[in-house]
Design brief:
Number of strands: 24
Order of helices and strands: EEEEEEEEEEEEEEEEEEEEEEEE
Largest sheet: 9 strands, mixed
Oligomer: single chain
Structural class: mainly beta
Helix content: under 10%
Number of helices: 0
Strand order of the largest sheet: 1-4-7-10-13-16-19-21-22
C-alpha cells in the first residue's frame, strides 16, 4: 500500500520514486525518473520533470516547475511561481536535449521566494534565502540573503530564517556564526 498521497487530478508517470508522507496536490505532474523524498508537499500545478531529485521535507508551493537538471537537497522551500531554467541559450528550432542541460543544485534548507528566478548552472548554498522576485545568476554562499536583479548578497540569515545582525548572532534562536569560504558557518 502506498504511503503517500496523490490528488486525483494529478498524474505520476511510471518509474517514479515517492517517499512516505509526501503529498502531491491538484493538477501536478511528476515525470519519469523523478525521485521525491519523504514528507514533501507539492502544491497545485507543480511539475517535476524527468530525472529531477527532490530531497526529504521539501515544500514546493503552487506553480513551481523543476526542470531536468535541477536537484533539491533536504528541507528546501520553493515559493509560489519561482522559476528554474536548464538551458542558457534555448532555441525552439535547435533543441539540444538533456545531455546539454546545466545542473542547478539547491542545498539543504535553502528558501526561494515567490517569483524568484534561478538561472541554470548555479548552486544555492545551505540555508540561503532568495528574496521574492530576485534573479540568481551566480552561485550563492551558505546563509546568504540574496535580493535584487541580478541578486546580490544583502545580508545573512540564520538556519531558523531570521536575518542576522552585524554580530552574526541570531536574536531569535541564539545561534552564532562566523564567515567562511562558503559564506557562513555555525559556531558550535
Amino acid at each position: 500500500m502506498e504511503k503517500f498521497f496523490v490528488h486525483e487530478t494529478s498524474f505520476v508517470d511510471d518509474n517514479v520514486k515517492i517517499g512516505d508522507g509526501t503529498k502531491i496536490w491538484h493538477f501536478s505532474h511528476v515525470q519519469s525518473g523523478a525521485e521525491i523524498g519523504e514528507n514533501c508537499s507539492l502544491g497545485q500545478n507543480v511539475n517535476v520533470s524527468n530525472n529531477v531529485k527532490v530531497g526529504n521535507g521539501c515544500k514546493l508551493q503552487n506553480n513551481v516547475s523543476l526542470y531536468e537538471g535541477v536537484e533539491l537537497e533536504d528541507f528546501v522551500f520553493c515559493g509560489p511561481s519561482c522559476v528554474f531554467t536548464n538551458d542558457l541559450t534555448p532555441r525552439a528550432k535547435y533543441p539540444k536535449g538533456s545531455a546539454h542541460y546545466l545542473k542547478t543544485l539547491i542545498k539543504k534548507g535553502a528558501s526561494i521566494g515567490a517569483n524568484a528566478t534561478i538561472i541554470c548552472g548555479n548552486t544555492v548554498g545551505e540555508w540561503a534565502l532568495i528574496g521574492s522576485g530576485a534573479v540568481v545568476s551566480k552561485d550563492v554562499p551558505n546563509h546568504a540573503l540574496m535580493l535584487g536583479v541580478p541578486a546580490t548578497v544583502a545580508g545573512w540569515v540564520c538556519e531558523c530564517g531570521s536575518v542576522l545582525g552585524k554580530d552574526l548572532i541570531c536574536k531569535s534562536c541564539g545561534r552564532k556564526y562566523k564567515k567562511s569560504e562558503d559564506g557562513l558557518e555555525e559556531i558550535k
